[in-house]
Amino acid sequence: MKKHNFYAGPSILSEYTLNNTAAAIKDFAGTGLSILEISHRSKEFTAVIEEAAQLFKELLDVPAGYEVLFLGGGASMQFCMVPFNLLKTKAAYLDTGTWSSKAIKEAKLFGEVDVVASSKEANYTYIPKDYTVPADVDYFHITTNNTIYGTEIRKDPDVNVRLVADMSSDIFSRPVDVSKYDLIYGGAQKNLAPAGVTFVIVKEDVLGKVERAIPTMLDYRTHISKGSMFNTPPVLPIFSALQTLRWYKELGGVEKLEQLDKAKAAKLYDAIDNSKIFTGTVKAEDRSIMNVCFVMKPEYAELEKGFVDFAATKGIVGIKGHRSVGGFRASLYNALPMESVDVLIAAMKEYENKI
Ligand SMILES: *Cc1c(COP(=O)(O)O)cnc(C)c1O
């Protein structure tokens, strides 16, 4: 049976990415060797990492003065690497969920942290908007998409301080005005590649301003000076990322991806809003187009348990909600086709009609 993959991460990859990755595991770029067994300094792999960085810049229209890095350690490593490199005395953070909280915890190891607003009291069901960012902070950190709670900031904020964003789960789902940011990072396993590589877009002139000693591997300048090849980079995920980036370009770039993503999300939210038994969990204006969270209405709560199993009979996988929200979460990353959304909606309707 065809599977419809709604996992939140690692998550669905395009056929194009999977097929080319599988082929390169057998024979990489006509070398007669697997990509798994060839030097990262070979000319064949050097071409891969260079094209990946270049396409990244092209698709997101990254201005001059920024570097794109491919690192290990996951987005979670960036929670400490960002303050290590950027926090002199004080930073501001917006607390919009589990990932923001984790970033805040790490930043506190390096200086004062001003949490300018939080929606924790409402189980992170909305994005706080009524706050001011103090002028004296070294940077302001946001998480653009809250993978777990299903809220999203889709407009690049205007602030008068340096801006840092975790875009792990919504990168390449819209055009981003990179010039408003000083650093953007994310794990690749949501909208780009298999787990193992983390992308960082960093403005070079923000670096070198802190007094503290930074371990070599945690210093962005190390990786900039070596083109992400100071040590062995995550070769296979970078190869897969390049395939996804080529596919994005072929599809028509981020404007086109945003159109497709919005259409998928609108259809699913519409089905949820018109359902007798399901209901959304977040404030409508802050709904994520990447991760759609929904539950059973209280009067149908006892039906919740059965839906995941029912959906599985239709080939639908990965829709169980995160334990901190419960219910269901359908992740609609770029590689997920509209057909899968249609199958999910049909399953929801069929389930509803059974009662
Ligand atoms: C998944 C996720 C992370 C954690 O990523 P790792 O690569 O597992 O460290 C951080 N932030 C957001 C927004 C995420 O979705």
Account of the 3D structure:
With 355 residues, the chain is of the alpha/beta class. The chain contains nine helices and 14 strands. The strands form four sheets. Strands 2-10-9-8-5-3-4 form a seven-stranded mixed β-sheet, sandwiched between helices. A three-stranded antiparallel β-sheet has the order 11-12-14, with helices on one face. It has a two-stranded parallel ribbon with strand order 1-13. α4 links the parallel β3 and β4. The longest helix is centred in the last third of the chain and has 21 residues. It is globular, with a radius of gyration of 21 Å. The mean pLDDT is 97. The structure holds pyridoxal-5'-phosphate.
- Side by side, the strands of the main sheet go 2-10-9-8-5-3-4
Tell me the number of helical segments per DSSP (H or I, 4 or more residues long).
9
What coarse outline follows from CA principal-axis ratios? globular
Pattern of helices and strands = EHHEHEHEEEEEEEHHHEEHEEH
Computed CA radius of gyration, to the nearest angstrom: 21 Å
Query: Uncertain segments of ≥5 residues (pLDDT<50)?
Result: none
* Largest sheet entry: 7 strands, mixed
Amino-to-carboxy terminus distance? 26 Å
Question: Which cofactors or ions or other ligands sit in this model?
Answer: pyridoxal-5'-phosphate
Tell how many strands the DSSP assignment holds: 14
User: Beta-strand level of the residues, as a percent range?
Assistant: 15-25%
Helix content: 25-40%
Q: Mean of residue pLDDT?
A: 97
